[in-house]
Amino acid sequence: MSATWNVDEFVKAAAVTVDELAGYVDESQRGLAPVLRRTPPAELAERLGLYSWIRTGGMTPDSYRDFLYDYLNEGTRLHHPAYLAHQVAPPDFPAALADFVHGAANNVMSIYEMGASAATVEFAVIRWMLGKVGFGAGGGGVLTHGGSLANLTALLAARARTAPEAWTDGVPPDLVLLAPPSAHYSLTRAAGILGMGARNVVPLPVDDLGRIDVARLPEVLDPARRPIALVADACATGTGLYDDLRGIGEFCAAHHIWFHVDGTHGASALLSDNHQHLLDGIELADSVVWDAHKMLRTSGVVAAVLTRREADLDAAFQQEAAYLFYGDQGFDQLRRTVEGTKAELGLKVFLNLAWRGERGMGDYVAAQYATAHRFWELAVSRPGFECPYEPESNIVCFRYGTGDQAALREQLMAEGSFHLSSTEIDGARHLRVTVMAPATDDRTLESLLDRIAETRPAATGH
Fold it and tell me: What family is this (predicted)?
C-alpha cells in the first residue's frame, strides 16, 4: 500500500468531516442534544470499535462517517447554550479552518525554514498583542501550546533577570515567587519545575474574594529572600475578578520586582471598549500571558507570552544544538519556547481576526460578560440563591440552599441538562458559571435557575 496520499479519498473524507461537523455544531447551538455525555470508557471504546480499528485498519469514508457521528455524539458540546463550565472556547469557524490547514500542511515553525508563512503570521499576531497590552516596539513575544507553558516561560524570563546564573549553576536557595492563593495552579507547578519548590511560593495578602490587597503588600517583603516575580490575576480563574493592576504594578516598580500578569482569560477584555478599564495598569507589567483559546475563540490551545523588553524573553532559555542553532536565524522562535516542534498557532488567531476584526472579537467578549452579569441579576432576585460578588467578567459564582453544591452540579451533569463547574470562595464550595457559548441566552439562564430550584432536597438543603 502506497504511503502517499490518495487525494480522491482525502477529498471524500474531508467532505464527510465538514458535513458531520456542520450538523454537530448546528445541533449543539440549538440545544437539541445533551450538553455532555459521560459514557464509561470501556463501554465507549466498545461502541466506537476502537481496538478493532487499531488492530485491523481499513476505515473508508463511509465507515469514517459512522465513527465520526458516534465520536462527536459522545463528547462535550461547547457550542451548546447549556455549556457553562470551563474556560474553553466554542471555537469560531475560521480557527477550525486553521486547524484543518495545519493538519495537512504541518508547517511546524519553531524554525523559520520549516514554515515561513506560519512564522510570519505568528510574528504579526504577536506584534498586535504587544500593542494591545501597551508594550510597544521594544516588546517581545511567542505563542505556546497553552497557558501553563506560557506561565512557565514567563517565569523563566523573570528568573533569568533575577538570577541569571540559575540556568548553569542551579537555583539559589533564596528565590521565591509571590502569588495570591487564587493564582492558577500552573504558577505553583512552574515553581516546582524551576527547582524553587512549591514551598517557596509566598502567598500574597488578599481580601475575602481573593483579590490582592495592595496596601498590605509590604508585609511579604523579606530582605533575606529574592522574589523572581509577583503574580497578579487578570482575571482570577475561580471568580473572574481582576486584581488592581496599576496599584500592584506601581508597588513592583518601586521595589524592583518583576511584575507578571496572568491574563490568560481576562486579557481579551482589552478589545471591549466597555471592559478594557479592568486591565488598567497592564502596561506596567514585565510579562503578560494571554490565552487565545479562551475569549479569542480559537481551538485549543494557543497562549501568548509577552514581555515588555524583548531581551528578557530571549534570556529565558540558554541552550546549544549544533544542528539547529547556527548562523543568522531571523525569525526562529526555538530559543524562546519549551517546544521544539510547534503548531501553526498564529494562523488560528489571525483567521479569527481576519474574519471578525478587532471590533467583532471585542463584541464577543462584551456579550459574554453581559450575559454573565444578566445571570447574576436573575440569580440574586430569586429566593435561595446567593452570589458573593457582582461579576466583572463572564464568570459568576453562586450557591443555592445550604446543601452539597457539588452533588447538585453532579445531578445536572448526570442528566446532561447543564454543564457547570465549581470552586471554593472563603472556604465554602460554590457553583460556578462561565459563559462561553454565544448561544447562551436569557431562556438558558432562566431554565438553569428553574432546574436548580427543582432539584431534590438532598442536594439543596431545603
Answer: Belongs to the group II decarboxylase family.
